[in-house]
Amino acid sequence: MLKILLMGHPNVGKSVVFNRLTGANATESNYPGTTVDYEKGYVFIEGHETEVLDVPGTFSLYPKDKAEEVALKIFTQEKDAVIICVLDATKIERGLYLVLEVLERSRSVIIALNMWDVAKDKGISIDHDHLSSLLGVPVVPTVAVSGAGMKELIFSIHEACTSDVKSIVERAMV
Ligand SMILES: Nc1nc2c(ncn2[C@@H]2O[C@H](COP(=O)(O)OP(=O)(O)O)[C@@H](O)[C@H]2O)c(=O)[nH]1
Ligand SMILES: [Mg+2]
Q1: Ligand 1: does its nearest atom lie under 6 Å from the Cβ of 11?
Q2: Residue 90 CA to its chain's centroid (Å)
Q3: What are phi and psi of 20, to 5 degrees?
Q4: CA distance 119 to 30
Q5: What is the 49 CA–ligand 1 centroid distance (Å)?
Q6: Which end of the chain has less neighbouring CB within 10 Å, N or C?
Q7: How far is the CA of 27 from the centre of ligand 1 (A)?
Q8: Alpha carbon distance 1, 29 (integer Å)
């Protein structure tokens, strides 16, 4: 089964992106042996159930607390998952550190440059196409709270997993 992991720092909008992808079918549970919550939901790709995990927020793959330990465990276990790294577009340098760690471990990665609206308001402009060609992965500006960019994000999942994602597109569009 194809799996998608949403990873990134705390408060970058992972859970809002998660809700857009999975709709109302999410379940929350504690990671085995810990009190750390994570959510699991499903989307259908070509009629096949695809699992989406809202991974606990983490700054790096060198854990400094319980939540980060769980994030690393999930990342390590789910070797074939597509990773959507959600970044706060207003704090991109810090977020890219995690992206580089993930890329170092040869994973399929998509970058969601979330909070694009806040970045715009602050006069921050990012050449996302250039960043994409530098890193060799799709980089998609998103505003998770309004849904802007979600369609493009879903199409980049499409690119990463070469599947027909019409059903997720329909569900995530507002
Ligand atoms: N302005 C704006 N706020 C956002 C966006 N995405 C998420 N938020 C808000 O940012 C806060 C953190 O979002 P959340 O999904 O809980 O972050 P998480 O810790 O990464 O799961 C919430 O108050 C969201 O409503 C966005 O693109 N733009
Ligand atoms: Mg969250």
Answers
A1: yes
A2: 17
A3: -65, -40
A4: 33
A5: 26
A6: C
A7: 19
A8: 20
Task: Give the position, in ligand 1's atom list, of the atom nearest the Cα of 12.
Answer: 20
Task: Please answer whether residues 7 and 58 qualify as being in contact, where contact means their C-beta atoms are separated by less than 8 angstroms.
Answer: yes
Closest atom of ligand 1 to 86 CA is 20
pLDDT tens digits in sequence order for the chain, 174 residues long = 789 999 999 999 999 999 998 887 777 778 888 889 899 999 776 666 789 999 999 999 999 999 999 999 999 999 989 999 999 999 999 899 999 999 999 788 999 999 999 999 999 999 999 999 899 899 999 999 999 998 898 878 777 654 344 444 454 554
Q: Decide: 22 in ligand 1 pocket, CB within 6 A.
A: no
DSSP annotation of 91? G
Nearest-CA residue for atom 8 of ligand 1:
13
Tokens encoding 56: 């606990």
Is there an atom of ligand 1 within 6 Å of 56 CB?
A: no
Which residue reads 């493009």 in tokens?
A: 152
Is 57 a pocket residue for ligand 1 (Cβ < 6 Å)? Answer: yes
What is the rounded CA–CA span in Å between residue 138 and residue 128?
Answer: 9
